[in-house]
Amino acid sequence: MNSNSIPPGLDDRLKRLLGGAELAPLRLRMRRYFERVDNGAPEGILRLTQLNAAEQEALALLIGRSSRPFRSTRVDVRQLDAALNEAGIASSLRTALKLIDGPIVNRAAHRINIQAQWDHVTSHGHWHVTLSDWVITPVAIRLLKRLARQNPTIAQQLLERADIVLRRLPADGVPLSQLAAETLGNAHALDSGEPTATIILAAWRRLESKNAFGANLSDDNEQQNDVRIPDERVRDIWARAGVLINELARPVLFLNLPVACNDTTMGTPGEPAYLSLRRLVRVPPVWAVNGVTVFVCENPNLVAIAADRLGAASAPLVCTDGMPAAAQRTLLTQLERAGARLMYHGDFDWAGLQIANHMMRTWHANLWRFGAKDYEVAVTNAPHARHDLSGACVAALWDEALMLAMQSHGIAIAEEAVAASLLEDLHQIV
């Protein structure tokens, strides 16, 4: 209730004693006292300080104190209750404050009640196992409270929606919009940034991390679930769950990847070919790469050069086309799981080192002519195919000397500039 709006049925004497906007701060301090006191507990002493003139006058009338100025006072609430009741103004000070400004909520009891509601939400016994395993973690609780705006009822609804979707995963290449429409009745209900989608992605990442780390899953790994992830990573997570976003965007370029059967969709030997995320997820090829070295490059031009110079005699080659997107990541994951030995080369610049670090961390790739000595040779042999380095330095996980060498020379060298040496490796392996 607004402090300027006094109920029409309120006793006129109470209006004069405690009503009005001028005494709202005093009433607020009194209400806070009762918010801390259990409704069944006996009232005690109310201490009031830094009182202004209007507040002093009101308290003097309430407690029968002399009107001489005082900046602080102690009020025996039980005596004041008795005085108000005897005068027929209100049954108690608590009641008087309720009449003027509305109900008084016991803060401690309110906190206990809210916590009980959250405990009920997180201890639900019938969630999908992936959701149940995620929601009990401290990171999940923080994220869920933020998404639900601290409202346990909204949190319950979000979890119910996430549970419905998770029971459909992993899917078999269904578009995200179709999954959202079929499970939640809205084709945009799982768009990036939607609370339900955020919960599902966090729970799925928790499942993947648990499978990867097992009992060694740490708080550091958990902490990643509470960080907003880029759209490109979102597509990757959905793809690993069998759900497609922009399934035809940025297909992955490759050359001479062997399959277990005669699959004409894998392209003509010696000719570069593309695979979409849609195809990789919906009908994954059976890769015949167990124990096979598969080379990985950063730039499509190198694939074209290998096809022109070596054709069908080139070793298997995959292009990341910069930082791997969903299709590239899906293919690399399939190849690694099929037993391929991945070898990576990229541009000798800071972005190239960043991609290489990512290749090592994610797919345990080995480095292909991409160390400090290789850079020194490239600087010597390819002086016309270079440009100045720019941007923040990146340390190479596999060779501490590489960053120092690049800093020393201050030049970047494109992958195409060292194509001759890379072609030697591609030809030798066949």
Question: Can you lay out the helices and strands and say which pair or pack?
Answer:
Layout: H1 12-18, H2 24-35, E1 45-48, H3 53-63, E2 73-76, H4 77-86, H5 93-101, H6 107-122, H7 129-135, H8 138-147, H9 152-166, E3 174-175, H10 176-184, H11 195-213, H12 219-223, H13 231-240, E4 243-244, E5 252-255, E6 273-275, H14 277-282, E7 293-297, H15 300-309, E8 317-319, H16 326-337, E9 341-345, H17 350-363, E10 366-367, H18 372-381, E11 386-388, H19 400-409, E12 411-413, H20 419-429
Parallel strand pairs: 3-4, 7-8, 7-9, 9-10
Antiparallel strand pairs: 1-2, 5-6, 5-8, 11-12
Give the tags:
430 residues, disordered N terminus, 12 strands, alpha/beta, 3 domains, elongated
Summarize the structure in words.
There is one protein chain. The protein is α/β, with parallel strands linked by helices. The chain folds into three domains: 12-105, no CATH class; 108-244, no CATH class; 252-429, Dna Topoisomerase Vi A Subunit, Chain: A, domain 2. 50% of the residues lie in helices and 9% in strands. The chain contains 20 helices and twelve strands. Strands 6-5-8-7-9-10 form a six-stranded mixed β-sheet, with helices on both faces. Strands 1-2 form a two-stranded antiparallel ribbon. The protein has a two-stranded parallel ribbon with strand order 3-4. β7, α15 and β8 form a beta-alpha-beta unit. α6 packs parallel to α9 and α18 runs parallel beside α19 (400-409). It starts with 11 loop residues before the first helix and ends with a helix.
